[in-house]
Write a structure and sequence with these properties.
This protein has helices at 2-7, 11-14, 30-38, 58-67, 87-95, 127-146, 197-206, 209-214, 228-237, 259-271, 290-302, 341-358, 371-375, and strands spanning 19-24, 43-48, 51-56, 73-83, 109-116, 159-166, 169-175, 218-221, 283-287, 309-313, 326-330, 362-368, 383-389, 392-400. With 409 residues, the protein is of the alpha/beta class. It has two domains: 2-175, VC0802-like, CATH 3.30.2130.30; 197-239 and 274-400, 3-Layer(aba) Sandwich (Rossmann fold), CATH 3.40.50. It has a seven-stranded mixed beta sheet. It has a seven-stranded mixed beta sheet with strand order 10-9-8-11-12-14-13. A hairpin with a 2-residue loop joins strand 13 (383-389) and strand 14. The N and C termini lie far apart (77 Å).
Length: 409
């Protein structure tokens, strides 16, 4: 009993402890994510390609899980070692953590291991073997105390432990997210090759949508597919936190989870929503595929945003600008859904003509994995961003459509 009392952290004390946190994001989005974290507010420690190290209390961690639109995961650092070189040293480092204070023996868990920048070894580590060693260390720690062990589950585990080995420094994290944060929970279905929600949110940030939405500037996605970009745009406009749709987070089975504090953060986040249509911009979506529009409508309704978005079935060249100024962000077909490159070239050329003649005064952002298709739009981009869309290297072109718009050569 004395040992238990010695190590227990009361919720009140735990809520004030500063934690080392790490937010993971898709490639190319670290700058966008950094700005999000600063606005939480939280103190950024370091920006890496693919993630941001930051500091905050438990309340900050909860807020990050609920509010960060471009993050994939939020990790809480449990331990950082000095330089280690052998699998046995990794086992010892993991076993040194009192895992019985992290989660219950009845909980199931999973361990993942990654490494980078291994200067002192000729060959990359066998990360599957090292993950197994780490799993054994955790199990052995439980057996030592309870003569029992937690079970391992690779599918939707209650607790996820992530280890990263960089320049022989081992960092051990608790994954606070559970399932990836891009899985908001509003999707009832998708079409082929849907864009991930956190990438969609990032495109909207890069296009300046948050400031435009605050000014009630109109929005359009003319290739809306199953509605992901539209829904993310409406969530930004209504200040709806992406985590509000999720049923579970990875910290629910963590022993230091403070349910009262989380409920308090949740209520604060809910209270920030803007649900008065009079205070919101007009938001439109269209697609020439009737099935896509029907699916988008279902997803929009599941997100509770049907009062703020208007859908139509139409090819982009048959649409009209509803306002003199607006923002377009879209993910048109680029070879995954259509294989005929000549047809795609024609589609993108029509897009450029439509933008030039019908959407003067608007800003347009287009993502594609095919640079030739983006170039065939025929307009000079204001900015270009190199991003990852799933496993594909992609570009995001941003156009400002002025009356004297020059055609790109």
């Amino acid at each position: 009993m004395n040992d238990v009392k010695k190590f227990v952290i009361t919720p009140r004390k735990a809520s004030k402890v500063k934690h080392s946190l790490f937010a993971i994001c898709p490639g190319g989005l670290d700058e966008v994510l950094e700005k999000e974290i600063i606005s939480l507010p939280a103190k950024v420690i370091h920006r890496y390609p693919g993630g941001i190290e930051f500091e905050g209390t438990l309340e900050t961690a909860y807020l990050a899980c609920l509010s960060l639109r471009t993050a994939s995961r939020i990790l809480l650092k449990l331990k950082e070692t000095k330089k280690i070189f052998k699998p046995e040293e990794i086992y010892d480092a993991v076993r040194a953590i009192n895992w019985t204070e992290v989660f219950d023996v009845e909980s199931n868990f999973a361990v993942y291991f990654t490494e980078s920048n291994s200067k002192d070894r000729r060959e990359p580590a066998n990360v599957q073997f090292l993950a197994l060693k780490a799993k054994d260390a955790i199990v052995d720690r439980f057996r030592e105390k309870f003569d029992n062990r937690p079970s391992v589950s690779r599918e939707d585990p209650e607790i996820t432990i992530r280890l990263h080995w960089h320049d022989q420094i081992l960092k051990i994290y608790l994954d606070l997210s559970g399932q990836s944060l891009h899985e908001r929970g509003y999707r009832l279905g998708t079409l082929e090759a849907p864009i991930k929600e956190n990438l969609a949110a990032a495109l909207l940030f890069l296009a300046g949508w948050p400031k435009a939405a605050a000014k009630k500037t109109a929005f359009l996605d003319p290739f809306c597919g199953s509605g992901t970009i539209l829904i993310e745009a409406a969530m930004i406009a209504t200040n709806t936190a992406p985590g509000l749709y999720r049923q579970r987070f990875g910290f629910y089975s963590w022993k230091n989870h403070d349910a009262d504090l989380f409920d308090s953060v949740l209520e604060k986040v809910r209270a920030r929503r803007i649900l008065d249509p009079e205070k919101l911009p007009l938001m439109f979506g269209s697609d020439q595929n009737e099935q896509a529009v029907a699916l988008a409508q279902s997803n929009i309704e599941n997100a509770g945003l049907q009062d703020f978005i208007t859908l139509s079935t139409a090819a982009f060249e048959n649409t009209e600008a509803e306002q003199p100024n607006g923002v377009i962000v879209t993910n048109p077909p680029y070879g995954v859904r259509l294989n005929e490159f000549d047809l795609l070239l024609e589609l993108y050329k029509k897009m450029g003509t439509t933008l030039k003649h019908k959407y003067v005064g608007w800003r347009c952002g287009v993502i594609s994995s095919e640079l030739k298709l983006l170039q065939s739009i025929g307009l000079r981009p204001l900015k270009k961003f190199n991003l990852k869309n799933g496993g594909l290297d992609s570009s995001f072109f941003l156009f400002d459509l002025y009356r004297d718009e020059k055609v790109a050569k």
